[in-house]
Amino acid sequence: MGGRGLVHIGIVAVAFCLGTPFFAAGASNSQSAILSIQALIARGDLVAAHSELSRALAADPRNGGLYNLLGIVEIRGGDVEQAQAAFSKAVALDPGLLGAWLNLGRLYQSRLDADPALLHKAIDAYRSALKLDHHSDEAHYQLGMLLEWSGSFDESLANLDALSQPEQRKAPALALRCADLAALGHTAEAQRAARELTIAKDFSEAAVQAALPVLKAKKQDKLTCTLIEALVRRRMASSETLSDLGAAYERLGHFAQARETFDRVARSEPTQSRPLLDLARIAYKQHDRKGALGYLAHARDLDPNNPTIHFVFAIISLELKLPLEADNSMKRALALVPDRPDFNYAMGIVSLYGHDTSVAVPYFEKFIKLSNGDPRGHYGLGIAYFYMGAYEKAKQEMLQVTGPKATGSGAYYFLGRLAKLDGNLADAESEFRKSLTRDSSYADAHAELAGVLMSLHQYPEAKRELDRALELDRANFVANTNLLIYFRRTKDARAVEQSQKLHVLEKKRDQSQELLYRRIEVRPY
């Protein structure tokens, strides 16, 4: 229920119906006892009420009204199990006790977080109450709420329509109506209900929160924004609700508004790391990597034992070409959670950016073991072996992962490079073409294929591959290198200009950047 049942505990504890029980002829003693017990409960004297109930039940053990009162005493005393047993006994003895059915429904409702299976029992209890009183606003409203929770949106709306007009105009009912209509795809009607809700006299954060789970589940983010923005204008939105607003803005792609909203939450909760993590995620989506790292650094200070913070910090550091920071952060994450598969995979990737790629091997091996042979592990291991010069081992790893979509193109690419190192140009050409069949946007594979074609003296096709590689990535180092070779071999005057361009690119070249484009990456979000 995601906390829904618990919302009602405070109400339930004080709102159970004392009711007016039915009496058989000649039951004046029971009637007198019940009136006395009701008075004791109203005064809050639960000990005396329980004592009188014990005596009354000994004299009249089949009186449903007495069990209803016993249930109220038990619930107010905090004994939920005994209260449930008493209310159940009350309706079993006297199915015509409206108050007992309502009390039983409330009790089931209050326990939904602990036992979600009670949802259907609560629904049945309110339906039984409506058989006794077709116009019970409480039964219709509570049944409407429970049916919404169970996904019966049409039936929920029918119960809301059965409410009296004053009750239909109240914020709780309007919130349910808005959520039901949104869930059914009646967007225009849901928007009207939302507008009515925002101008209702009893408009409140609680009413809005009741609608949010359904709106979120049905991806009605615009409605979510409408409702919460109204709370913000009235200064009624808590940090929790502001976080919901930020998340809705994020899902809509309104990153500037999301960032501003999460910033408000962070300022209102200066000791909490969660808003800072939200801010880091939004900054990352805005391509503000440095800003994201700033938020993460602050979050790390507040919550140093949160491994996810160290993990995300490491990956973004890697993207900013800060391998030492990435290495330190991933090691801290792994120190906290050594057997988490994705952390070992990320540590393997980070290790590939160092001078000794053999360091990555044990991390990829552990990832393979923890993830039951995930092909990305074999692919990463193959790259580590390749840059170590362990070419046969690299080949064996790559041959294992040519099939999966995530690794196939990259695996064929490295098999092509291995074939080229062996001097087998025909196999190299074949492997590079297979790589491009799997992913035609792979600039490196186009560039390498062009190099092989030039070695085979197929210059027109080589030029087409180079043009495609540079169309995909103007700064691709391999493509620009092979283009210079092409110009020189074809005695093109542009070789001088290309040589100067390559000199500039070589200064900017970074082995970590080269590795990043080899389909061996991990994303923080």
Summarize the structure.
74% of the residues lie in helices and 0% in strands.
Query: How many individual β-strands?
Result: 0
CATH topology of the domain at 1-132: Serine Threonine Protein Phosphatase 5, Tetratricopeptide repeat
What multimeric state do the chains show? single chain
Question: How much helix is in the residues?
Answer: over 70%
In DSSP terms (H or I, runs of 4 or more residues), the helix count works out at 32
Secondary-structure-derived class: mainly alpha
Annotated CATH homologous superfamily of the domain at 1-132: Tetratricopeptide repeat domain
Mean pLDDT: 91
CATH class of the domain at 1-132: Mainly Alpha
Overall body shape: elongated
Low-confidence stretches: 1-14, 20-27
Largest sheet: none
Tags for this model:
about 525 residues; mainly alpha; Serine Threonine Protein Phosphatase 5, Tetratricopeptide repeat; 32 helices
